[in-house]
Amino acid sequence: MTNKMWGGRFAQGPSAIMAEINASIDFDRRLYAQDIAGSKAHATMLAKQSIISKADLKAIHAGLDQIKTEIETGKFKFSQALEDIHLNIESRLKELIGEPAGRLHTARSRNDQVATDFRLYVRDYIDQLDAGLADLQLALAQKAEAHAGTIMPGFTHLQSAQPVTFGHHLLAYVEMLSRDRGRFADSRKRMNENPLGAAALAGTSFPIDRNMTSKALGFDRPTRNSMDSVAARDYALETLAAASICAIHLSRLAEEIVIWCSAQFRFVSLSDKFTTGSSIMPQKRNPDAAELVRAKPGRILGAFTALAVVMKGLPLTYSKDMQEDKEQTFDALDNLALAIAAMAGMVRDMEPNKDVLKAAANSGYATATDLADWLVQNLKMPFRDAHHVTGRIVALAEKKSCLLSELSLEDMQSISSGITKAVFKVLTVEASVASRTSFGGTAPVNVRRAAKAWLKFPKGK
Ligand code: ARG
User: Fold this and answer.
1) 114 CA to middle of ligand 1, Å?
2) What predicted TM-score, i.e. pTM, was given to this entire model?
3) Catalytic: which of 278, 319, 363, 408?
């Protein structure tokens, strides 16, 4: 059987394997709501421009509404022979309303139709991701406020560097997520132009009103070039790039949670809600959700790469290659949304073990920089000399297996005679974090203020 939607010049139907490779209905059925919204806007515009009659418009709208209900209640019969969501819906519309269905496709092609559907879908998904990211920021900022003064070691090279606060550490992620939201918002802004009316590639001779359909579909304006309209997929690429960077950020926090939960670190605890047990080792509590969030960049970067390779070198305008844009994008966005939600759950669930964190902050001579700074400020030593003197004092503490604050004044003076007992005030981790009041620094007063600012404008930044 030839395709009943476009089979006019075909004598035979496609081979089974052709039908299989050609069909996209198994995955593009997801676009049904966008496809129906696009068709309704198109039909309304056609009627307004007197290209179709009011009676046709009424029938088309009623038929499309019924199809939507059929799809949403699981009654719609999708057919592979009808290739994709566009032809499935149009064919059913024909069954339902007869001849007027054939007028819907006036001044339109599946090329501008799919471009419109996909833009709408990605755009609306960005709004959903933004809400998820805002919620994750909220969870982080709340925990940060609660732990603005909880001291932990800050790391460079995963070596104890300087004491910081747990709240400060969490707010670092709030900043990253804020930039992620900015990238999605940029992408959304550029993509929010309406390709509908570009028709196959050259525009149309019908007196259509593209501003009208733009407005109806929430686009800012029509796209300016009909060829670009049907050929462009950079909006999906850009969104996948933003998704990749966001997934990378989430994976860094996920990795930290995995490390922090380990028996060797014990920095935080996760409850049963976000961990699993081992089938053989009864003592284990595995941070599976964090591990899976850590893994997600694999498929999300994979989606970006896959679509970039599809688009690379593709001549203008539409080619069927571009049908491969959807599965990857859907998979990436679904998995990012899931990872964001899982991360928000884990952040709310996670409890820092304050004693362990503080003990860890005290080990590794994390206040050595404070000692060096004290030598500079009080003995007017050049920083390089102070660094050297501090190194020798650390070596002495190491030899005596004690903290810097546990050395005696004589020990200190044996290395640098000018040191006074005032030095002991800066050697505790509490004093160290409290002193970091520079803008953006880890002092609890700063962290509390920053957390409060985020909590006040959770949507704003
Ligand atoms: N299923 C197609 C896609 O996803 C729709 C566009 C088909 N256009 C065409 N000229 N065959 O790309």
Assistant:
1) 7
2) 0.92
3) 278
